[in-house]
Amino acid sequence: MKIDPTTVPLLGPPTATAAQALAYARARGAQRPQEVAAFIAELWRLGTAAGYDPAVVFAQFCDETGVGGSAAWVSRLNPGGLGVTDAGDQGIGFRTGTDAARAMLTHLSTYVRGYDPAFWRYIDLDARYLEPLKRGWGASVRALADLGGGKWATNPRYAAQIADHLAAIRVIAPEGAAASAPTGSGGATRPAEPPPGLIWFGTGNFHPRPEGQRPEAIVFHVTDDLSFSNVRTHFQNPGSRASAHFVVDRDGAIGQFVATIHAAWTNGDIANPRPDLPWLVGAVARCHDPALRPTARGNLNDFCVTIESVGKPGQPFPAAQVERVAALTRYLLARYPTILPRRGRLLRHSDINAVSRGYCPGPSFPLRDIILAVGGDPNDLS
Asked: Angle at Cα 201 formed by Cα 38 and Cα 126, nearest 5°?
């Protein structure tokens, strides 16, 4: 499907998800994948908050860097030709993918809004922040096509090439959707597609899993707050130091805050964990393995995916919500065969912290029914 770059605005809600962007980068063999993931996460967090369509900016990154394969990206994490003035010049270098995203959005903002207060705190990252303004290009870009004509690039096909990337990103299956579908204990094939209608919100509250580490367990929580909006605000606040991969609302709507390739910040509070769950006992022991995480040990989040259900401990969970939690669990089991469909790998938060989280997700949370619904064994603690 072709997209006319004159019809693509820079401002507006996301027209693709960060999960789709990550899948596109992986499919195209992007280099420095952890920094690509950090770049994407920050584009969707900061760009969305400031009113920019992060999918368009990521498509621009794809054209500028050959989908993360250019020398400028590999050697300097330069995401968009920032500071490149002649052939062979690799431009400005950045320390992290997060900084690269902030700099690219900051530079783009001069073309779109001129002096945009949303990015003033990041001006120091962009050594050429004033150049578009000096040239009279401030607040001159509305559509993707406006970036050509010598403004961001002189290539007459610049906007069209970005539009081609954007079209491909919008239709690609999100992470794991194209994965094979292993069978459950009952022999039924588990679908590998994420539940329909999943919405990406994103947060900067996460850390990369250790290299090569895949999720091995799912931990279920209750938000202890009946407002999805409150939960979203909490998880997107850097000061909270908290997050979850997924939050399922009372009506079954699913929001994703952290890509499952990363560790969310919600299961690090180990206190009197259950001793009769062998996987949990072993995972807690591995938290103190210096070879696994030599500079940040003691983090059970490295091994887990977290699903939060909006609710209060002890209150019934609506059927629509439980069905969607089961659907999401089914997808994660298909995506990660390392998560076994048994009680020993499908945990309550209270299994990890019986001291201050004994209420989470509470006795009314139907974990047994969910395990049965995904073809697992609720009695198998192994």
From this structure: 40
Q: For tokens 């204990």, what's the residue? A: 185
Output phi, psi for 64, to 5 deg: -65, -35
Full DSSP string of 165-229: HHHHHHHSPPTTTTS---B-TTSPBPP-SPPTT-EE---S-EEEPPTT----EEEEEE-SBS-HH
For 34-38, which contacts have Cβ atoms below 8 Å and span 24 or more sequence positions?
Answer: 34/97, 34/208, 35/77, 35/96, 35/97, 35/100, 36/68, 36/97, 37/97, 37/208, 37/259, 37/261, 37/262, 38/96, 38/97, 38/98, 38/101, 38/208
Distance of CA 124 to the CA centre of its chain: 26
Query: Under CATH, what is the fold of the domain 5-171?
Result: Lysozyme (1.10.530)
Determine the Cα–Cα distance for residues 253 and 179; give it in Å rounded to an integer: 23
CB of 377 within 8 A of CB of 331?
Answer: no
Domain 199-373: give its CATH architecture: 3-Layer(aba) Sandwich (3.40)
pLDDT number for residue 1: 57
Radius of gyration from C-alpha coordinates of the chain:
22
Q: Which two tokens stand for residue 61?
A: 């990154």
Q: Structural domain boundaries of the chain? A: 5-171, 199-373
How confident is the model over 154-179, as a mean pLDDT? 79
Chain segment 4-55, per-residue pLDDT in tens: 999 999 999 899 889 889 988 988 889 999 899 999 999 999 999 999 999 9
Do 245 and 256 touch, CB atoms closer than 8 A?
yes
pLDDT in tens, 62-88: 999 999 999 899 999 999 988 876 545
Of 146-155, 167-176, 233-242, the poorest mean pLDDT is in 167-176
Q: What CA–CA distance (Å, rounded) separates 8 from 372?
A: 46
Determine if the peptide bond prior to 361 is cis (ω within 30°): yes
User: What residues does 353 pair with on adjacent strands?
Assistant: 271
